[in-house]
Write a structure and sequence with these properties.
single chain; mainly beta; Jelly Rolls; 2 domains; 7-stranded antiparallel beta sheet; 47% strand; elongated
């Protein structure tokens, strides 16, 4: 069934069942396959949440949330996907190498990163390093089964790094979780936390932005 451009009707025209079905019913059915019940476009990414208020985690060794959002019940379904993107930068100006611990959680369960195994020791520098994390979590055919793949990158220390030719990074890590079992018929909170290896005014993680998107079938 394809789209049929409705004809312009005049006063006195006889609207037969065939005309009604073609001009209205069939076209509405076609539109409905592209529009969800809430009016969002079918199969397109939908913004669930966004934060662009800078948050600085500095002079603390406590686990600190830099992003958190309660995903409403029945949002993911049995075939949907979530995409979390977090940007920011990191400073280690302590005079020695330091570790930073990054963890991404769903319903309190870590599916990316760790609170005990930090990222590789990051060398000291008076300049900051760009940070990017992207996690893609998808339903695995049921409302209580999920899988996730996450990538986190930390760039070179630089005042401003705009050279696309520079492919060197301090780290580029990937991880996966294939057996999450959160009941998505209930609200579940997705969280990202940062933990410094030690408390220092010269250790800082600035969360610039965070975006959570839903891709629903």
């Amino acid at each position: 069934m394809g789209w049929t451009l409705p004809s312009v009707r005049s006063i006195g025209d006889l609207i037969t069942a065939a005309i009604w079905n073609t001009d209205l019913k069939d076209n509405l059915i076609l539109l409905k396959t592209s529009v969800n019940n809430d009016g969002t476009l079918h199969g397109c990414a939908r913004l669930l949440d966004q934060s662009t208020t800078e948050q600085d985690v500095v002079n603390t060794a406590a686990e600190t949330s830099v992003y958190s959002f309660s995903i409403p019940s029945n949002t993911l379904g049995t075939a949907g996907s979530l995409r979390l993107t977090v940007t920011g930068n990191y400073l280690n100006n302590t005079g020695s190498g330091q570790s930073i611990f990054v963890a991404v959680k769903l319903g309190g369960t870590i599916f990316a990163g760790s609170l005990s195994a930090g990222l590789a020791s990051v060398s000291t520098s008076a300049l900051r390093r760009g940070f990017l994390l992207q996690a893609v979590l998808n339903a695995n055919g049921a409302t209580n089964a999920q899988r996730a793949v996450t990538r986190a990158m930390l760039g070179l220390a630089a005042a401003t790094e705009t050279d696309w030719g520079n492919t060197t990074v301090a780290f580029d890590l990937h991880c996966m979780h294939s057996a999450l079992a959160k009941d998505m018929t209930a609200a579940q909170t997705i969280t990202m936390t940062i933990t410094h290896g030690t408390a220092s005014s010269n250790l800082s993680f600035k969360r610039w932005g965070a975006t959570l998107e839903l891709v629903a079938p």
